[in-house]
Amino acid sequence: MREVLKDAEERMKKALASLEKDFSRLRTGRASTSLIEGVRVDYYGTPTPLDQLASVATPDSRTITIQPWDRKAFNEIEKGILKSDLGLTPVNDGKIIRISIPPLTEDRRKDLVKVAKKYTEDTKVAVRNIRRDANELLKKKKNDKKSDTPLSEDDLHKGQDDVQKLTDSYVVKTDEAFSKKEKEIMEI
What is the pTM of this model? Predict the structure, then answer.
């Protein structure tokens, strides 16, 4: 029974970590290197992550700087940023590429909150699916006649209660993460 709970908790932690990663990619009007984390650049015919071609920094809250290690990569990095669906425009001065993060409009902020809410709901669904899987596994262990120690009816109910408590705690953590991100997005 402990194995089932431990596995369910590990999977729920991964779901929450995935939500945090999705949130980090949402643009909040504040510069963050995680905004361009997913950008791929065609480097000598190979799609390469941007952070493997250049050093990326945020000198202030509205600017991201990219300093390529290879001078020949400047144009490809610019193309990669423009092709990404971030809506950001890079400015190249020959030594460094700068990306200015424009302030968000009220409508855009509301749209971003909706996207964050969708990510949150998807994570809650994932957590509930993990709960269902754990409960099914407990039922299988109860009905397993080949096992040396099948679960008793009381153990099954206790296990299901523990899985529900775990699920409830991760749903609360998911809601807390959303509230924090919503506040960050709506902050001017």
Answer: 0.71
